[in-house]
Amino acid sequence: MREVKIDKAPVALYKILKFEGIVGSGGEAKKVIADGLVRVNDAIETQKRKQIVVGDTIEFAGEKVLIV
Question: Can you list the positions of beta strands (E) in 1-68?
Fold first, then answer.
């Protein structure tokens, strides 16, 4: 599991996927979230602007990220 440090919380889910290089673009991030391919704290998340805070976990395409 990779740890990602955020300086300002909360952060929109799609921005974390984009800025951490998990997907290629913001548009791609929004699509994979809308398609139900992303999990936040072990639950499928379809809200593109879901607010992510310290302690949350994000899973997509076999990669797991812990927000610290």
Answer: 2-4, 11-12, 39-40, 43-44, 51-52, 57-60, 63-67
Classify residue 28 by burial, with Cβ atoms within 10 Å: 0-12, 13-18, 19+: middle
CA gap 24, 13 in Å, rounded: 14
For residue 44, the model assigns a pLDDT of: 98
Q: Per residue in 3-50, pLDDT tens?
A: 999 988 899 999 999 999 999 999 999 999 999 999 999 999 999 999
Range 34-62 burial, b when 16+ CB lie within 10 A, else e: eeeebebeeeebeebebebeeebebbbee
Question: What predicted TM-score, i.e. pTM, was given to this entire model?
Answer: 0.91
Backbone angles phi, psi at 7, to 5 degrees: -90, -35
